[in-house]
User: Fold this.
Amino acid sequence: MMKIVLGALALTGATTPALATETSWSTTDRDLASLSSSLTQGASGVSVSGFLRSSYVGWSDQDVGGFSIDDAQIWVNGTVGDFGVVVQTEAADSPRFFNNDTGDFTSGPDVDDDGDGVPDDVDTLNRPNQPGTVGSLGNLGVLDAYVTWNATEMIKVQMGQFRPAVLGSSLGNENNLLFINRSGLGARFAYRDQGVQVGGSFGMVNAVVYLQNGDDLDGDEISFGGRASATIMGTASANEGALGASGDPSLTVGLGFTDDKGLLADQVIAVDAAFTMGALGVSVEIVDVDEDDATLFNVAGSFVVMPDQLEVGLRYEDFDDADNENWITLGANWYLQGHAAKWQFNYIMLNSDDPADDTDLFQVGLTVSM
Assistant:
């Protein structure tokens, strides 16, 4: 199921040893406390935050379902003068996929799409965050780990491990999503890699360029790319959807590019836009993949039915593949404390010209951020 798209997903990260006992958890707590203490020395600000996302996923055309730990993240942020440090960890284990042929859950494909030398079925942080996956609590791994330097009032330099700035929805954290799952394109570019980037704000335009190790098998090709975005009217929102949008119209457009001579594609061009006005939110993502000569896209819309409480949404995704695969997601969010505490319900229809890939599933999820 979803063999074309899931084969194109690349999510990377470095892992630490498994936390199998209470002693291991205590050691991790001490390590985080030690890190926080060292950051405090001479620091102008240190904060610890995070969130937990858990859900239940079931198949309407199969008598099967399961509970899932989607994310269990802790973030540490600190600043010292013009320098900053960000460490973001994840304690949710690799997801299992429901196999239509066997009728049970299995680990991910035994391939190494992300090129980190670890098969994806045992790679803790290769988490596609896609329909049909069930995760669990497991190894603690590092997602983001980078330092920043405010070189000037407008220019910031960043070095370490981070997500490449290509598609806008990939850069947002999972606790602020409109739907339980990212879009297929959003998940494609939400991987992490080591490198350096330089970015800045120039009026209404934000621009970033980056160099990263890349996804190639030989390890000798550097991935590079960048993104420019502009809020050409109104004020951009940090969240997906229309929650918290003002009554005035807001429009943000972005253009991204990446060149990675690895397993997935040589060159990718991405265009995205997000519009809100009052209770209405609309977004679109379009990605042209040079190697596959394919153009993938999705469009989503949402409406806040009850101010600050209830938002409903619809998303359509087309993957321009041989089986004409597309996903349709219906969603409803019940906000208790905005995106910081919310219940979500999604009904997802996976359609394909190959009947074996057709399935419908539903998810109910709870997200709480601290």
About this structure: The chain has three helices and 20 strands. The chain has a mean pLDDT of 80.
